[in-house]
């Protein structure tokens, strides 16, 4: 008998293996049209308690399930997911405003996450001398709460769930209220494979995250989002000494040397600035161009950015959709207005978008503003970027590193040895040489300074979901 397919028209919280509704509901909107999307339940304090209890109960059996059996379950979840890639693509288009190519890229990146994690094994070290044997192993931390962002709601939730399950943890996913749908549906799909309570999802409003952070029976928080919220989470988690992994904001620099192929490099730098409307944690936020090619490179950037087609997510010609939500849309508008009020020169001015509804902003480029300008100092997280001149290598490296953030950076030069030498001086968790930020599950994603604590993905990211135990066996 064939199991019924998931429906993508109703959404529930998932607690102890079952869908759970609520007397109170909320909804998000399609940022392309501002039309109301589906209702989702707002979890209650009792829902939080029930989810935490269920996660603790499930942890007892799941943590002792043989590793290869856990791997087998995750592989089954992957096989189920493969049947729904198109539905998840359409869901991401609706809730994020992503053009089909960007939404499909995220939906397919889930397969890469599965493949990478399914190939991992938890390391164990054995050391022996005359008096003892020391076995160092990594044991699951317990119940994990994953507090997820709105910009990549599927990848950045599943990227937390799979390693948690692999290591033997149980996990509660708290999706963003701006983009709750894909994460809720992915967790619903997981119920076809995993025992009740192993993977749950609860969301609704701004009270759910703090309730999970403050709960004494939640052992770890994995959070992706703003640095301000990350600091609050870390402060609250201190009361129970929870483990925390924080992937936070960035103000990622790109340094462009005079030996680059301008016509080839400028469109790539533009892509790094404006992919998904700049709403990417590792998007390029500041571009430093050597003064000897500055005017030519700036013109090439303007030409490339002017070719970006801003439009609705479902339009085949769209290469950049709307901002995801009104709050971020208004924040970027305010940064544009501030740059104009300060008299900064725009190499590319925002152009009007001919839609009555939707959070649309076209790309804009600010020409060599002061280093103290808000557009340089603040993370804009939207389709506006400053381009700045440099002449001295030591000075530009100091400028690139001269922020409290350190998430990503890129270096562009035809000299491979120079690229690596300068890349090694970047105070950032991810450095890309002659490329914009193309992350992969195979590499650790982490932040330096105020861009995060710990890291995820890569070959060692799973250890963030473990405690280390050394066992001493005396002879």
Automatic annotation (TrEMBL):
It comes from the Eukaryota. It holds the Pfam family Aldedh. The keyword Acetylation does not apply. It comes from Aspergillus cavernicola. Keywords: Oxidoreductase. This is aldehyde dehydrogenase (NAD(+)). Coiled coil: none annotated. It catalyses: an aldehyde + NAD(+) + H2O = a carboxylate + NADH + 2 H(+). It is an enzyme of class 1 (oxidoreductase). SUPFAM superfamilies: ALDH-like. CDD domains: ALDH_AldA-AAD23400.
């Amino acid at each position: 008998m064939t199991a019924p397919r998931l429906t993508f028209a109703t959404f529930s919280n998932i607690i102890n293996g079952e869908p759970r509704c609520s007397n109170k509901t909320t909804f998000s909107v399609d940022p392309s049209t501002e039309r109301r999307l589906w209702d989702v339940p707002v979890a209650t304090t009792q829902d939080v308690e029930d989810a935490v209890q269920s996660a603790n109960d499930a942890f007892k059996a799941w943590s002792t399930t043989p590793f290869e059996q856990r791997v087998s379950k995750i592989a089954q979840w992957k096989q189920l997911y493969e049947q729904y890639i198109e539905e998840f693509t359409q869901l991401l288009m609706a809730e994020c405003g992503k053009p089909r190519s960007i939404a499909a890229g995220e939906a397919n990146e889930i397969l890469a996450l599965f493949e990478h994690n399914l190939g991992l094994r938890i390391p164990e070290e054995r050391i022996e001398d005359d008096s003892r044997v020391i076995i160092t192993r990594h044991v699951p931390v317990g119940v994990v709460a994953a507090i997820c962002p709105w910009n990549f709601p599927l990848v950045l939730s599943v990227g937390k769930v799979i390693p948690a399950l692999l290591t033997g943890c149980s996990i509660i996913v708290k999706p963003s209220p701006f983009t709750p749908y894909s994460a809720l549906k992915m967790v619903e799909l997981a119920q076809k494979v995993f025992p009740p309570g192993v993977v749950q999802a609860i969301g609704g409003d701004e009270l759910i995250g703090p309730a999970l952070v403050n709960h004494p029976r939640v052992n770890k928080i994995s959070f992706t989002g703003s640095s301000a919220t990350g600091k609050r989470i870390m402060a609250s988690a201190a009361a129970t000494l929870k483990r925390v992994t924080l992937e936070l904001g960035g103000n990622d620099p790109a340094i462009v040397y005079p030996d680059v192929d301008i016509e080839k490099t400028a469109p790539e730098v533009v892509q790094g600035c404006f992919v998904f409307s700049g709403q990417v944690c590792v998007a390029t936020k500041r571009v430093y161009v050597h003064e000897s090619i500055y005017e030519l490179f700036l013109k090439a950037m303007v030409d490339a950015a002017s070719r970006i087609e801003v439009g609705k997510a479902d339009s085949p010609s769209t290469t950049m959709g709307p901002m995801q939500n009104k709050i971020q849309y208004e924040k970027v508008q305010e940064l544009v207005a501030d740059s104009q009020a300060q008299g900064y020169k725009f190499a590319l001015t925002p152009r009007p978008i001919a839609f009555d509804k939707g959070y649309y902003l076209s790309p804009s480029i600010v020409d060599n503003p002061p280093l103290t300008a808000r557009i340089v100092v603040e993370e804009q997280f939207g389709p506006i970027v400053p381009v700045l001149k440099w002449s001295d290598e030591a000075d530009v490296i100091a400028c690139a590193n001269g922020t409290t953030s350190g998430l990503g950076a890129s270096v562009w030069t035809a000299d491979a040895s120079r690229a690596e030498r300068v890349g090694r001086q970047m105070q950032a968790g991810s450095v890309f040489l002659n490329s914009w930020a193309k992350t992969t599950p195979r590499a650790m994603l982490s932040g330096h300074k105020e861009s995060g604590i710990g890291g995820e993905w890569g070959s060692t990211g799973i250890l963030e979901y473990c405690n280390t135990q050394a066992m001493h066996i005396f002879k």
